[in-house]
Amino acid sequence: MNKSFPFLLALVGFLSGVSAFGHCQVPCGIYADQHRFEQMLEDQATIEKAGKLIAELAGKNDPLSRNQLSRWVATKEAHATNVQRIVADYFLAQRIKSTAKNYEKQLVTAHGVMVAAMKCKQGVDAASAEGLKKAILALHKAYEGKK
Fold it and tell me: Could you give all domains of the chain from N- to C-terminal order, each with its CATH number?
């Protein structure tokens, strides 16, 4: 076996882990704020779709439906967690600065996104998914300093 194989395997594992969290916390200065908002909105759309499909599958009792139901629940959970990680690891840890003019508004709206994502984990109703979308858009507005 090639001696570099374990190194390559570790490198692939490390790189795939880094991309799962959106952006590293190394002070590289490479940021893609708009991309993060687009990611969160894509996650929200997936949560919304998952909620609809979970409701459709809930009354079915065949093995395939139960399998798909559990997969949609896991998908919904993963996308809600991804939104929370983007807010925590990217915006709160790196991008929202205490020196910003609207720092308090940014913190309040970031917290709103975290809570809305948590509510999406707790239920499957369309109102929770819509609330998450509104919270993400409110954070985007506050982050960019728009009224």
Answer: 33-143 (1.20.120.400)
